[in-house]
Structures are given as C-alpha cells and as structure tokens.
Write a structure and sequence with these properties.
CATH architecture of the largest domain: Beta Complex
CATH topology of the largest domain: Beta-clip-like
Bound molecules: zinc ion
Number of domains: 2
Low-confidence stretches: 181-204
C-alpha cells in the first residue's frame, strides 16, 4: 500500500471493517480430529459462504504463509493466521482479544520502523483505524509492524521467521557499516516480501 499524497503524523489513513475475525485464543477441543486448527478451518469454511463475491475475492487474494492441505477451510484459516491484526473488544470481559483480517490494512508490509500503526479498533463500529506514526511522503510505502517494537532485534527476527517465514531486511535490520567514500556507497533497498501495493484513497 502506497501513499498517494502527503499524510501528516497522527492522521487517519483508512478506517475499515474486517472481512473475517476470530478469537485470538482458540481452545484445543479434543473432539475435533485436527485439533484447534481444524476447528478454525471448519469455522472459516462455514462463514466464508456468508461473504459477498467481492469480499470472498479480497480475502482469498491475501498472502498465506501457513502450510496448505488443499481444503478451502485450511486456506482461509492460513490467510487469517497470516494477516490477522489484533482487534480488542474492550467492552468484553470474557473474550476481548480477536484477530481481524482487513481488506487493505492487512496488505501493509512489515517494517521494524513502521510509518503507520493499526492499533485502534472500535468495537462499537467494528472498524480498525490505520493511522500515521509519522509524516508519510507521497509515493512512500505504508508499513506496519508485525511484532512488538521494543524488543531486541534477534527476538523480532525470530518471531518474523517463525510466524511469517521471512527474514526482515528493512533498513532498521541492516547491520551498521563503517562509512565509505561517497562514490562506493549504495542505496539500501528493503527486500522483505511484497504482498500487494495499492494506492490509497485517503478519507478521514
Ligand atoms: Zn526489520
């Protein structure tokens, strides 16, 4: 996702409702032969039919880094586990933590120095806000973090490798090198996986 204009720090970039959402804590039901993931797959397969054709297409278009078994439920569950963003129902005392999959926000790539964050979930409106953490220039990719940012670099890399199967090579993960003469220096280009870049129509 790429900014199509200057976005100021703190500004709302997009507000959108999830395509799908599931509890962050999934109990291990002993009566399901495939355990907790089988349970999630069944739930996603059943609920998928309730979505419109466009929403189904948007959901299936998202990146999936989880193992594939070939069933629709497995694919949908993998997409949800790859792209789910923490969505907290603050008014729920018993089960407040969910993972929501969003049509545009979930397409944002990771950076260890992200320029945006999707942390404001309004459980009354069932909508997530993506907001700028700093000023974002036109043409700049809008990024979020898939991990906690205050941990050490090694812990971040471990989490990204385990959960999302990639090694982050953003500019914040590059080792600091001694300065070279100007003619020898190169521009560092992040090579983390690109999901899909879409221009953003910004509305507040
Ligand atoms: Zn990084």
């Amino acid at each position: 996702m790429v900014a199509d204009r200057l976005i100021k720090a703190g500004e709302t970039i997009i507000v959108e409702r999830p395509l799908a959402i599931h509890p962050a804590l999934i109990p291990e039901f002993s009566d399901h032969p495939q355990g907790r993931w089988g349970l999630l797959e069944d739930a996603y397969e059943a609920s998928f039919q309730c979505l419109g054709e466009r929403e189904q297409s948007l959901l299936l278009d998202l990146w999936n880094c989880k193992p594939l078994s070939g069933t629709l439920g497995n694919r949908l569950s993998g997409i949800a586990r790859t792209n789910g963003l923490q969505s907290v129902f603050t008014r729920s005392k018993h089960l407040p933590h969910y993972a929501g999959v969003y049509p545009n926000i979930s397409r944002c790539n990771h950076s260890c120095g992200p320029n945006a964050a999707a942390t404001r979930f309004d459980d009354e409106k069932m909508a997530m806000t993506l907001a700028a953490r700093r000023s974002i220039s036109p043409g700049e990719e809008i990024t979020i973090s898939y991990t906690e940012l205050d941990g050490p670099h090694a812990a971040r890399q471990d989490e990204l490798k385990t959960k999302y199967l990639f090694t982050c090579e953003c500019k914040h993960c590059k080792p600091t090198k001694p300065s070279r003469p100007k003619r020898l220096s190169n521009t560092l280009i992040g090579t983390f996986p690109t999901k899909l870049s879409l221009p953003v129509s910004v509305s507040t």
